[in-house]
Amino acid sequence: MAAKLKKGDKVVVLAGKDKGKEGEIVSVDPKAGKAVVEGINIAIRHQRQSQAQQGGRRPQAAPIDLSNLAFLDSNGKPTRVGFKTEDGKKVRFAKTTGDVI
After folding, report:
1. Which among 19, 23, 18 has a CA at the least distance from the CA of 37?
2. N or C: which end of the chain has fewer CB within 10 A?
3. Backbone angles phi and psi of 66, in degrees to 5
4. Whole-prediction pTM value?
5. Rounded CA gap, 18 and 75, in Å?
6. Rounded Cα distance, 55 and 48, in Å
7. What is the pLDDT of residues 27-86, one digit of tens each?
8. Longest dimension (CA), the chain
9. Continuous H helices in the chain
10. d(Cα 22, Cα 77) in Å, to the nearest integer?
């Protein structure tokens, strides 16, 4: 099945501790149904000190479920993503505006 949300898409969080926050997708794991969004679902990871790097507590974005994300259309509102064929190619479009993504 084609991916409704892809790397580089601007999304808004629908549920969870970061509800309402917006960000850009950094990576997607379609098998697990999760995505890493920049600045969203921040977790503290403890880094051991090495010769090249200082140790300490580092904030890192953790994966969030795709069902808790919604695509932001050109108006900046959350929308669902649909598929249609245009000139023999399958393209994604925003359901609210009908614009091709």
Report:
1. 23
2. N
3. -60, -30
4. 0.83
5. 21
6. 5
7. 999 999 999 999 999 999 999 999 999 999 999 999 999 999 999 998 889 999 999 999
8. 56
9. none
10. 11
